[in-house]
Amino acid sequence: MFVSGINVVRELLNSNSKIIKIFVEETDNKNILELAEIARQRKLPVEILNKKDFNQLTNAKSQGIVAKIADYKYYSVEDILQDSVDKNEPPFIVILDGITDPHNLGAIIRTCECAGVNGVIIPANRACEITDTVYKTSAGAICHIKIAMVTNLTTTIKNLQKNGIWVYGLEAGENCIYNEDFKYPTAIVVGSEGKGISRLVLDTVDKVISLDMYGKVNSLNASNAAAIAVYEVVKQRRK
Predict the structure, then answer these.
(1) CB-based burial label for 26 (10 Å; 0-12, 13-18, 19+)
(2) pLDDT digits (tens, 9 = 90+) for 88-135
(3) What is the pLDDT of residue 182?
């Protein structure tokens, strides 16, 4: 996988991500040269290319630096739960049901990492997986948060419930999110951009929560809705 961008490559170098090689376009950009030097100090191969050869690596806006990395290695749900134990805090997990847009996935991951969420769970089927676009849209946040991929969301949710985690579905309804208490072990399910949460998953969650809408448009982009919900949990837990 080729991942491009100054911020993304910086976060890769600051994490335990498996970097195979760094490619740099001929430049005098101090930020890029600094990252190339850090890579060399860590004994990573760095290749400087002319503009034509460099542009053949990726069609994305690369900002002059590209990292060749191993495919993303997913964590387990147990790893996510252990993260809450290590931090000595009640679990806080975000579950994504059918997010297919890599930009939305990356944006949600970025919000979750910034908010200190223990991990994100995504399904193996009918959803976006971790791609170079997700890396870039997350601004490298994906390097610092645990992402688990599971084959069956409903089974996963039931197992979380058995572990004492209250699972909420973020969907249009009567129960406003601001009336809930999230100081306890919490998981929030965010549905797909068009269809929302699937019926099977919706029937499995403990409670459906919603965001109040006061305008003429009755829904938010999935990543925006997720951000509001995530930071409501953060607000309550930081009081």
Answers:
(1) exposed
(2) 999 999 999 999 999 999 999 999 999 999 999 999 998 899 998 899
(3) 96
User: pLDDT digits over 152-161, tens only?
Assistant: 999 999 999 9
Share of the chain above pLDDT 90, in %: 72
User: In whole angstroms, what is the distance from residue 140 CA to residue 127 CA?
Assistant: 20
Q: Rounded CA gap, 143 and 7, in Å?
A: 11
Instruction: Name 30's Cβ contacts closer than 8 Å, sequence gap at least 6.
Output: none
In DSSP notation, the chain reads -EEE-HHHHHHHHTTT--EEEEEEES---HHHHHHHHHHHHTT--EEEE-HHHHHTT-SS--TTEEEEEPPP-PBPHHHHHHHHHHTTS--EEEEEES---HHHHHHHHHHHHHHT-SEEEEESSSS----HHHHHHTTTGGGGSEEEEES-HHHHHHHHHHTT-EEEEE-SSSSBGGGS--SSSEEEEEEBTTTBS-HHHHHHSSEEEB----SS-----HHHHHHHHHHHHHHHHT-
How far is Cα 179 from Cα 209, in angstroms, rounded to an integer? 9
Structure tokens at 201: 């998953």
Q: Is the pLDDT of residue 218 over 80?
A: no
Backbone phi, then psi, for 81, in 5-degree steps? Answer: -65, -35
